């Protein structure tokens, strides 16, 4: 039977950057062996599958330093302290893509990286989005375009959407949209 490891102690902030804090946790394993385990601490992030008023998916492209590649992705962003995930999702959609929506559906909450990170990915579907203009941060260079839902499936299938949390959110949204479509008939 799998057992939870026993937390012995914790060292906070052993490493810090503008994007993350690293804590070290000291555990006793079920075998009684003691180990150190680094955990990236954070509030998590939001990912938004957004559809404009014509039912087209709002897709962004930007350089992603972690993988040193240009990624075709969904709107996403880290959660700011003091904001709920939904408030953050609304802020990111307007900031990065220049769209607002009053129709939001929560698709789920998933671990960013269950083995070594404390944050959660909050996935949303925003529908009937209206363009109001981008408001990018100084380090954001984002190209926005709209595509059919089938194009999004193709991006995933051909490995053009690289971020796994974006892929998960897209698949959840596509499943939700497929279910809604079948319920109409």
Let me know the average pLDDT. Answer: 91
Report the portion of residues in β strands: 35-45%
Q: The CATH topology of the largest domain is what?
A: Nucleoside Triphosphate Pyrophosphohydrolase
**Which CATH architecture of the largest domain?**
Alpha-Beta Complex
- H/I helix tally: 3
Low-confidence stretches: none
As for the number of domains, it is 2
According to CATH, the homologous superfamily of the largest domain is Nucleoside Triphosphate Pyrophosphohydrolase
Structural class: alpha+beta
How large is the radius of gyration?
A: 19 Å
Helical content band: 10-25%
Say how many strands there are: 11
**H/E series, N to C?**
EEEEEEEHEEEEHH
Record the SSE blueprint:
Blueprint: E1 6-16, E2 21-28, E3 34-41, E4 45-52, E5 57-64, E6 69-73, E7 75-78, H1 85-97, E8 99-100, E9 103-111, E10 120-131, E11 143-147, H2 149-157, H3 164-183
Parallel strand pairs: 4-10
Antiparallel strand pairs: 1-2, 2-3, 4-7, 5-6, 5-11, 8-10, 9-10
Short characterization:
With 185 residues, this protein is an alpha+beta fold. It is 23% helix and 43% strand. Strand 9 (103-111) and strand 10 (120-131) form a beta hairpin.
């Amino acid at each position: 039977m799998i057992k939870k490891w026993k937390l012995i102690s914790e060292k906070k902030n052993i490493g810090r950057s503008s994007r993350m804090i690293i804590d070290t946790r000291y555990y006793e394993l079920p075998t009684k062996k003691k180990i150190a385990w680094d955990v990236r601490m954070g509030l998590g992030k939001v990912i938004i599958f957004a559809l404009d008023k014509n039912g087209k998916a709002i897709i962004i492209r930007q350089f992603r330093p972690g993988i040193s590649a240009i990624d075709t992705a969904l709107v996403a962003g880290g959660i700011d302290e003091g904001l709920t995930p939904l408030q953050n999702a609304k802020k990111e959609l307007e900031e990065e893509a220049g769209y607002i929506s009053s129709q939001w559906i929560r698709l789920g909450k998933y671990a960013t990286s269950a083995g070594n990170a404390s944050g959660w990915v909050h996935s949303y579907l925003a529908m009937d989005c209206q363009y109001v203009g981008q408001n990018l941060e100084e380090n954001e260079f984002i190209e926005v375009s709209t595509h059919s839902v089938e194009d999004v499936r193709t991006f995933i299938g051909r490995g053009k959407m690289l971020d796994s949390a974006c892929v998960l959110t897209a698949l959840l949204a596509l499943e939700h949209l497929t279910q809604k479509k079948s319920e109409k008939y």
